[in-house]
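User: Could you go from structure to sequence for me? I need the amino acid at each position, not a summary. Structure tokens:
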């Protein structure tokens, strides 16, 4: 996976000889269909996007008409120390909001560094693994054309196997603001056509909550581990709403057995009627190494997020 350094790193850039024409947005008959994009920002950059009392993010939402959400200050993308920004709305509104945010972060770099030239920066998009094929293309043909057309560097990271159940990859774009926006436009145009991509729109931060709940608790019931040794056996109990237990367990116990096998953790679910104190949440006790517990908890919370979304439809 990419290093955990800040997503926005200034570096000098040689002047470009030409500027390619802007990419074509989706056709007008589908342009009102909602879409989304997610990318990473450092904690400091997130504060800049939010602004004093939320003024900046409110202004950006007003200007773009897109919805802008941030993960909380302890909810990072697994394996990084960066928070997640999700922008949703129509295609054009999403692109407008991305441009406002990246321009804001670029202006902060200028202010801090006193640099007049347009530096090449990095932004890391989060793309579901199932949708990466659509932007790579056969033999890498699509991603090569995107690099040529946008003149931005585009690199897709492999899946990080340290986090079982993580189904997202990072796509790193390197270039000027104009090149990055052009690359994002091209990439989102292709993702816009992918039915798998739209299905992941409604649970943007589920893994962020799960993988980082070790220090903050899940539903107020998670354990805080004082010993950081990965191989030490620990136990944590989380609460899951009674109506969602069926999906977590699966038919004939298939889901819970798979989660246990993949994560290496032992998982025990309380009997019917045995709830977390003062709630209607069943107890799920996960035992194993910290890594195994993180993995199991992440997969359980993904099932819960899916069940919650399905119930809201």
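Assistant: Here is the amino acid at each position, in order:
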């Amino acid at each position: 996976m990419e290093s955990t350094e800040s997503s926005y790193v200034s570096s000098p850039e040689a002047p470009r000889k030409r500027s390619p024409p802007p990419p074509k947005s989706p056709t007008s008959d589908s342009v009102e269909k909602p879409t989304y994009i997610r990318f990473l920002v450092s904690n400091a950059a997130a504060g800049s996007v939010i602004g004093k009392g939320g003024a900046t993010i409110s202004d950006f939402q007003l200007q773009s008409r897109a919805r802008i959400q941030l993960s909380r200050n302890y909810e990072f993308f697994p394996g990084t120390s960066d928070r997640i920004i999700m922008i949703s709305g129509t295609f054009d509104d999403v692109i407008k909001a991305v441009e406002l945010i990246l321009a804001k972060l670029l202006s902060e770099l200028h202010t801090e560094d006193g640099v007049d030239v347009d530096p090449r920066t990095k932004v890391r998009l989060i793309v579901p693994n199932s949708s990466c094929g659509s932007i790579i293309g056969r033999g890498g043909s699509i991603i090569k054309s995107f690099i040529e057309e946008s003149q931005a560097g585009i690199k897709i990271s492999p899946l990080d196997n340290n986090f079982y159940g993580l189904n997202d990859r990072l796509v790193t774009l390197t270039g000027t603001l104009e090149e990055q926006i052009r690359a994002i436009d091209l990439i989102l145009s292709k993702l816009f056509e992918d039915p798998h991509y739209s299905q992941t729109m409604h649970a943007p931060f589920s893994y962020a909550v799960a993988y980082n709940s070790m220090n903050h608790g899940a539903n107020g019931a998670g354990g805080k581990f004082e010993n950081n040794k990965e191989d030490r056996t620990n136990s944590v109990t989380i609460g899951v709403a009674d109506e969602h237990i069926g999906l977590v367990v699966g038919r004939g116990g298939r889901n819970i057995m798979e989660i246990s096998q993949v994560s290496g953790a032992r998982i025990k679910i309380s009997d019917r009627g045995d709830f977390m104190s003062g709630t209607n949440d069943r107890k799920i006790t996960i035992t194993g190494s910290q890594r195994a517990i993180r993995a199991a908890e992440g997969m359980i919370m993904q099932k819960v997020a899916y069940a919650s979304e399905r119930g809201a439809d």
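One structural detail worth keeping in mind: The first helix runs from residue 43 to 50.
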